[in-house]
Amino acid sequence: MRLNELSSPNGRTKAPLRKGRGPGSGHGKTAGRGHKGLHARSGGSVRPGFEGGQMPFYMRMPKRGFNNKRFAKVYAQINVSDLNQFDDGTVVNGELLIEKGIIKKLHDGLVVLGNGELNKKLTVQATRFTKSASEKIEAAGGKAEVL
User: Fold this and answer.
1) What pLDDT, in 10s, does the model give residues 118-137?
2) 75, 105 in Cβ contact below 8 A?
3) CATH classification of 71-146, choosing from 3.40.50.300, 3.100.10.10, 3.40.190.150, 3.50.50.60?
């Protein structure tokens, strides 16, 4: 026996399925794709991970890994115009603002924004001031103290 005389036994190999070759083949006309619908079209199939509109598994799973959001600072914000309700010479700080009901909570500190005008001479104590806010406070004769 030589290598060129070797052959597979009968039934070992199977002829490939030839789709769309007439009704006699049993796979003619629609060629095993059924009638119409998504999978009957060329290029018709859903993306990987699609579950028929149900929330996909990868979106249902809890998220892991590092995210800087949990370490971000959250500031209570007020505008310069909110300070007009205080009398001249008042020392305005976070505790006084909570007491007056202007802010609900201090969070990681207080930031004063420069919206509006200030007509009173105040000493304002906050964690941060915007440039325009500190200019408006000092222009009114007050003082912006960074804590």
Assistant:
1) 888 989 999 999 999 999 99
2) no
3) 3.100.10.10
